[in-house]
Amino acid sequence: MPLVPLQADVLGPDYRVETISLPPDSEGPVVATLVTLEPHRPNGRAVLHVHGFADYFFHTEYARWWADRGYTFYALDLRKYGRSLLEHQTPHYVADLEEYFAEIDLAWWRITQRDGHREVIASAHSTGGLTVPLWVQRRRPAELAALVLNSPWFDMQGAAWLRSPATRLAIERLGTSRPLQEIPRKVSTVYGRTLHREHGGEWDYDLSWKPLESRPVYVGWLRAVRRGHALLHAGLDLTCPTLVLSSARSYFGEPDEETAATHDIVLDVEQIRHWASSVGRHVTSIAIEGAIHDVVLSRPDVRAQAYDVLGKWLTAWVGTSGPQEP
């Protein structure tokens, strides 16, 4: 059990939260935040979840699914996101994805050394689904039992020229000379409206932490992501069982609410499936019909399919996945 008292989280008294202090960067003090949900009957295992871009942890159903199976569930709000965003900071900005390794290291130490978990499943969504495999490749943690990636960002979506050598060079140069230059882009709010309870969706979350209109994209941050893509494309060598979940289809036209509720309108799912095998030696890639970008926030019947897939995969490659008796 934790050696320090934890505070109640915004999600309610079942969720405990602690602040992780990190070395300051050029903008000043930096923190990350670790949220914990304890199971009623712990099995000695844990999950560490990392969110995506313009996001934070509010996925109580996902956390409860793991806790019902005996896993202590931890979620990390990375620096400059969600609970960890400080007033003086540029939201989400880092110049290198490896900057996140510091808080993942410290969260992992708390889970394994402080709290005594010897088997940990790493879970991540979207940009987190790129960052976490890169961290695993570098750190090779002995306690890692498996990896679950929910719509990981494995490549630059959009027209082919966005992935050309010329564009790559331009991002490198601008990312070095003008890292905080914002990249103009058109962002539809329809994805957020399909999610948030105030706009007809199912989920309640803080719109100041996860805005309907997303967040600005800066050249220096995109350079960091594209460098991460290059490392992934060169091939990682992870040996743990890995599950890659995605929607069955993407849609990049002008979405309406029905399209946004049944497709990934953020990433190209064909790219996800194409690059999934680059993660390592033992990868299962499953496309869920009707899923959205964040698969576990899809409609209830689609989520049920996703959890069924997750449960069967967990039983086959990690261990028992069924819910425990109260």
TrEMBL record:
Residues 45-183 form the Serine aminopeptidase S33 domain. PANTHER family: PHOSPHOLIPASE-RELATED. This is Serine aminopeptidase S33 domain-containing protein. It comes from Nocardioides flavus (ex Wang et al. 2016). The lineage of its organism: Bacteria, Bacillati, Actinomycetota, Actinomycetes, Propionibacteriales.
